[in-house]
Amino acid sequence: MGSRIVATGRALPRTAVSNHDLARRMDTSDEWIRTRTGIARRYVISSGESLVDIAAAASKTALARAGMRPAEIEAIIVGTVSSEYGFPSFSCQLQHRLGVDSIPAYDVAAACSGFIYALSVADNAMRAGEYSRVLVVGADALSTMVDWDDRAVAVLFGDGAGAAVMVAEPGPRGVLSSLLRSSGEYWHLLSVRSSGVRATLDSEVRRSPDDAIKMKGPELFKIAVRSMADVTLKVAERAGVGLAEVALIVPHQANIRILNAVADRLGIAPDKVFTNIDRYGNTSAASVPIALDEALEAKRIHDNDLVLLNACGGGLTWGANLLRW
Ligand code: ACO
């Protein structure tokens, strides 16, 4: 028995913020942000908006496209580090919003690698025969955790959610292999204390610098390139597949220069790497499922294509999933 993604969905906050908007509030420029990161705009949560509602909207789209009612789902697994509560988990809040209050629902905290981890956890559970239909979600709102005076960090992140409906299925299609890695020794390169205060861009509430995301960008950049390239090669090796056979890589959208450097290292043509970072920024665990949903909509993925998902994020964590669509 294996598992396969049968439908996806995405949802974003109402407010789009361009680089020009940011340049009006801090010492930055559209030119700096575009050339250093590839980002032109991002969506950010406003006060009064709920990331759980956004995740529910993405989930409902995925379920509708799968032709399923929420009641048919047997488990919910969410990659997130953005619950407003220490507990209950984000998944339990989402489950309640979806009206499926009796199934198992739990979070996987792996920062930007959250969806890759959650998908692997769901696949293993289905292989073990535990569930036959699982909702896997990536949702984050890191814009609420930045210090809006720290321009090196504040310009990078956006918010959103992506969802995938997975079904247990025998046969050649679905998840072929997953590879998860983490290295706590690098925890200090990207971290945030969990103070619970949501400092949305539109409100007066501000995180103190000590409680905001701290990042060592240039060091992170080098490790992200190395680790994403390494895990991409290894997940393909594990499945006995050559990278040349992969039709599309759908990576975590952290920085266009990271994606280009990984592609260069692996000798992958740029048109085989899906990017949408210009419109969303880095949405952490939401980035891979949002990109996957857009890639499907744009018909960049066809039945039986080999599709590779990869990510690197705080922890540090990194990982990849190889799927036959
Ligand atoms: N606008 C204008 N200038 C800025 C800004 C800004 N928003 N931010 C920093 N600068 C300035 C710096 O102050 C510095 O000025 P100085 O030379 O006078 O001191 C200059 O720009 C260069 O700064 P660097 O940090 O060297 O810039 P770099 O080329 O490394 O780019 C960046 C910075 C974009 C953060 C890059 O290091 C990066 O992307 N790192 C990876 C970080 C990342 O992706 N984090 C997300 C989570 S992890 C993940 O998802 C993989």
Write structural notes for this entry.
It is a single chain. The protein is α/β, with parallel strands linked by helices and 325 residues long. It is built from ten helices and 13 strands. The protein has a single domain, classed as Peroxisomal Thiolase, Chain A, domain 1, CATH 3.40.47.10. The strands form four sheets. The protein has a five-stranded mixed β-sheet, sandwiched between helices. A four-stranded mixed β-sheet has the order 8-13-12-11, with helices on both faces. Strands 2-3 form a two-stranded antiparallel sheet. Helix 3 packs across helix 4 and helix 7 packs across helix 8. The longest helix is centred in the C-terminal third of the chain and has 22 residues. It is globular. The model has no long low-confidence stretch (mean pLDDT 96). Acetyl coenzyme *A (ACO) binds next to helix 2, helix 6, helix 7 and strand 12.
Main CATH class: Alpha Beta
Bound compounds, please? Answer: acetyl coenzyme *A
Kindly estimate the percentage of residues that lie in beta strands according to DSSP.
Answer: 15-25%
The strand count comes to: 13
Rg, please? 18 Å
The low-confidence runs, each spanning 5 or more residues with pLDDT under 50, are: none
- Class from secondary-structure proportions: alpha/beta
| CATH architecture tag | 3-Layer(aba) Sandwich
Tell me about the largest β-sheet: 5 strands, mixed
